[in-house]
Design goal:
This protein is mainly alpha-helical. The chain is built from 24 helices and 3 strands. The chain starts with a helix and ends with a helix.
Amino acid sequence: MTAESDAMEVEPTTPAAPSSADPNINTPIEPEDEEEDVSDLSDLLDKATATTDAASQIPILSSILNEPRNRYGPQASALKERAVYALSRAYCASSRYDEIVTLLTGECASFFANITKAKCAKVVRATLDIVCNASPDQYDMQAGICRNIIDWCKNQKRSFLRQRVEAKLCSVLFRQDRYGEALSLVDSLLTELKKLDDKQLLVETHLVESKIHHGLRNLPKAKAALTASRTNANAIYVSPALQSEIDLMSGVLHTEEEDYDTAHSYFLEAFEQLDQMDDRVKALPCLKYMMLCKILDGLNKALGLSGKGVPGVRSRKSDVDISGMISGKQGVKYAGQAVDAMSAIAAAASTRSLKEYEAVIAKYPEELNEDLLIKHHLGTLREQLLESNLIRIIEPYSCVEIDHVATLMEMPQGVIEKKLSQMILDGKFHGILDQGKGRLIVYEEEDVDKAMEGGLKVIENMDGVVTSLFGRSQALRSMMI
């Protein structure tokens, strides 16, 4: 036992004397991740930013992406991402749009290979937004870039990015009025997205689908697509910019249904969100739509209309007054030709002056005819003004010459005659056109015989009862036989 205990004892060892030759002695421990040295890339980016000439910026920014040391750490990747955006702006300023496709599919290949696919998708989508904002009217160029990137995504098997670029292409095709091609692409894209349950992209795609159906004047499908977009938006966080687009589309559809109060509230929501983001380009149409709803709603109330009602009530200026909307802080901020055009339309509607209305349309063609919603509803407003003026002129007469009405309206006789016949067929007033003598004969409104109407309803109900009894008797006879 003693021998075992002696064998198990361990002799204490004295620490070795430190050797002066050991380099690790008395030196601080360095961190595993050294701080990136990206000062040269930062200097190049600052140099390119300081240069105003786009042609001079391009080689400097390209050298950042193609730097020989191939650094892809967090700081280097951030600088290269900024270089991609700056290079895209430089190509747009130089109108070298084809180079953007080469930039994304070739020059950035090594950069995209060393970052996550989600980060790559973010860079590509941001680049497309830069191109679209730099050249908002060159839709053919935008569509070409999107198609080239989609082909590259298919070759690289980047489905996540391809779906987002296809969604962008759908919106570009919609702006080109190529509704059929856009709708087929949206349908195939929605089939994929519903399987993946990508709610963020479902919100955007359903919103584009709603816009396309509205462009095709298919309002039921437009409302259904918008409802689907809202349903998906309720399950996730939606950015204020996207929420404002949803509210704007809701207001557009309510305007088409002539529910101007509800439409105005949606336009107001979208306008306030865009105004807080200081996005004047998108906020201005919302303000114009708010003014349009106020004008149409006020005129309908003034004329006693309810979509299909009969005009003839004299309007009051206060019914279509929009001065409070444009005299405040927001109205002053967005003052310009567009606001002046809508104010002039409101003034013409308040006086029910068709001549003044035509003068406003001729004075502001771009502001009033380029927007499809405003153009469509101003056409409806013109018809209402024309009908109300005709009713006001022929109201005192039982027989009046069409030439006299045309002279007072300062319009061609053929146009007046056609409109009068249309109003007679629509039941706006009772009368006939004596084209042989060029006269309009107006009949007085006849009182409806309520007893006659009641009797007809009784006869109709009795007919239904007799038909039902006859059917039952036939069934009993067949059973007895």
